[in-house]
């Protein structure tokens, strides 16, 4: 897992919005937290790409943060809120239909990646 995480960290600057959202979602789904270095890079990339996130990317990213018990950084939230104010409202269907509603799932036991 460490090798894969290292590769993800090396590629973080090239990720697109969906890639960032999917990576965060995957970690949360596995019940793991990304290492601190990767998390900083993912959050920085998410902030840089916030204006390009579609409704599904936003939903997956926020779901991952909530599932991992983390709060998105202030910069990311400011950019998302700015986009919403500019008319970039997500559609009502923002949660992947294959996932149970977060309120019905017990909190995961998160493992750290060493």
TL;DR?
The chain is mainly α.
> H/E series, N to C?
HHEHHHE
Radius of gyration: 14 Å
Stretches with pLDDT under 50, minimum 5 residues: 89-97
Which class of secondary structure composition applies to the elements? mainly alpha
Provide the domain count: 1
In which order are the strands of the major sheet placed? 1-2
The percentage of residues in β strands lies in under 5%
**How many DSSP-defined strands?**
2
Helical proportion, percent range: 55-70%
Shape: globular
* DSSP helical segment count: 5
Walkthrough of the structure:
With 114 residues, this protein is mainly alpha-helical. It has one domain. The chain is 56% helix and 4% strand. The chain has helices at 2-11, 17-30, 36-49, 55-68, 74-85; strands at residues 32-33, 111-112. The chain has a two-stranded parallel sheet. Residues 89-97 have low confidence and may be disordered.
């Amino acid at each position: 897992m460490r090798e894969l995480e290292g590769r993800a960290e090396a590629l973080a600057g090239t990720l697109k919005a969906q890639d960032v959202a999917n990576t965060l979602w995957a970690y949360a789904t596995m019940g793991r937290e990304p290492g601190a270095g990767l998390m900083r890079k993912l959050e920085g990339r998410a902030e840089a790409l916030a204006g390009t996130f579609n409704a599904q990317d936003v939903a997956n990213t926020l779901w991952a943060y909530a599932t991992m018990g983390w709060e998105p950084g202030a910069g990311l939230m400011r950019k998302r809120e700015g986009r919403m104010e500019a008319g970039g409202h997500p559609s009502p269907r923002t949660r992947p239909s294959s996932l149970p509603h977060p309120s019905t799932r017990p909190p995961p036991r998160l493992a750290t990646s060493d």
